[in-house]
UniProtKB/TrEMBL annotation:
<feature type="site" description="Transition state stabilizer">
    <location>
        <position position="219"/>
    </location>
</feature>
<dbReference type="InterPro" id="IPR037528">
    <property type="entry name" value="ArgB"/>
</dbReference>
<comment type="similarity">
    <text>Belongs to the acetylglutamate kinase family. ArgB subfamily.</text>
</comment>
<feature type="binding site">
    <location>
        <begin position="41"/>
        <end position="42"/>
    </location>
    <ligand>
        <name>substrate</name>
    </ligand>
</feature>
<dbReference type="GO" id="GO:0005737">
    <property type="term" value="C:cytoplasm"/>
</dbReference>
<keyword id="KW-0963">Cytoplasm</keyword>
<dbReference type="Pfam" id="PF00696">
    <property type="entry name" value="AA_kinase"/>
</dbReference>
<comment type="function">
    <text>Catalyzes the ATP-dependent phosphorylation of N-acetyl-L-glutamate.</text>
</comment>
<keyword id="KW-0808">Transferase</keyword>
<keyword id="KW-0067">ATP-binding</keyword>
<keyword id="KW-0055">Arginine biosynthesis</keyword>
<keyword id="KW-0418">Kinase</keyword>
<feature type="domain" description="Aspartate/glutamate/uridylate kinase">
    <location>
        <begin position="3"/>
        <end position="238"/>
    </location>
</feature>
<keyword id="KW-0547">Nucleotide-binding</keyword>
<dbReference type="GO" id="GO:0042450">
    <property type="term" value="P:L-arginine biosynthetic process via ornithine"/>
</dbReference>
<feature type="binding site">
    <location>
        <position position="157"/>
    </location>
    <ligand>
        <name>substrate</name>
    </ligand>
</feature>
<comment type="pathway">
    <text>Amino-acid biosynthesis; L-arginine biosynthesis; N(2)-acetyl-L-ornithine from L-glutamate: step 2/4.</text>
</comment>
């Protein structure tokens, strides 16, 4: 099965044009690959928390998650956002099935920080691929909200990029991280450049120096972790110009490709 996991960040969800959903449905109908959407919803959760006067903060791109924050994150992502995506795919001729990591224990998780300092923030230990295959084999496009569950039935908030990488790893697919930037950027000699390719060593340096910060940290780390677990390709693409996805599918160079290390070339 040739699977493409498209992670759509909350940063671009509201801005994605209909052509994005058409491309996803076209991928499915053409048989070119099996698309799976994993979504985030960071800004939308922020908005809901503000309205409810609930404080929240981030540590290295991960939201500290109390029970109250978890309930809001689940309401926003597994409810509103997930169903909006399913509806949009349906409008352009797709059959999508929305589910969260809680449904059929799709995403089995453990706490990211066993000390409890981050609260209910989970990392994926196991993906129930049988259910994903069942949906895909019946013509469906799975749309996954990143709320996970542990052995005891406790729910956890999972970063969307981490959830997408775990799904990509479990199906040995391609991982496409769609966000609101053209790729990983850096200011060099007063000019902003987009890195077309980045290795693990370069990425770790850029995190240390602060060039990569905030939500980009779990994104690049998930891209790397996926690759070491058998993900075929990890790439960060711009969702604000959805032609990037079409160009990527056409084999053109776009966004930032994350690689483990460059192959050594001997003279
Ligand atoms: N070096 C970098 N290049 C591009 N964006 C970066 C970089 N470092 C941090 N960022 C930030 O990461 C953000 C994308 O992460 P995030 O907000 O979590 O997006 P999403 O909701 O799509 O997952 C960008 O909007 C930008 O503010
Ligand atoms: C643990 C954790 O940080 N969870 C994220 C889940 C949403 C997410 O990842 O959204 P983006 O893809 O838009 O960043 C959060 O609460 O914001």
């Amino acid at each position: 099965m040739n699977v493409m996991i498209l992670k759509v960040g909350g940063s671009v969800l509201a801005k994605l044009p209909q052509s994005f959903y058409e491309t996803v449905v076209q991928l499915k109908l053409s048989g070119l690959c099996e698309p799976i959407i994993v979504h985030g919803g960071g800004p939308e959760i922020n908005h809901a928390l503000e309205q409810l006067n609930v404080e929240s903060s981030f540590v290295k791109g991960l939201r500290k998650t109390t029970q109250e924050v978890l309930d809001v994150a689940e309401m926003v992502m597994s409810g509103s956002i997930n169903k909006q995506i399913v509806t949009k795919l349906g409008k352009v001729g797709g059959t999508a099935l929305g589910l969260s990591g809680v449904d059929c224990s799709l995403l089995k998780v453990s706490p990211v920080d066993p000390s409890g300092a981050l609260g209910f923030v989970g990392q994926v230990e196991q993906v129930n691929t049988d259910w994903l295959k069942l949906i895909m084999n019946n013509g469906g496009i799975p749309v996954i909200s990143p709320i996970g569950i542990d052995e005891s039935g406790q729910r956890y908030n999972v970063n969307g990029d981490m959830a997408a990488a775990a799904v990509a790893q479990s199906l040995q697919g391609k991982l496409i991280l769609i966000s609101d930037i053209p790729g990983v950027m850096e200011d060099i000699d007063g000019k902003s450049i987009i890195h077309s390719e980045l290795t693990k060593t370069q990425i770790e340096k850029m995190i240390l120096s602060g060039v990569i910060y905030g939500g980009m940290i779990p994104k690049v780390r998930s891209a790397l972790k996926g690759l070491s677990g058998g993900v075929k390709e990890s790439i960060i693409l711009n969702g604000l110009t959805p032609i990037d996805l079409a160009n990527y599918i056409a084999g053109k160079q776009v966004g930032t490709k994350v690689i483990i290390e460059k192959e050594a070339h001997y003279a």
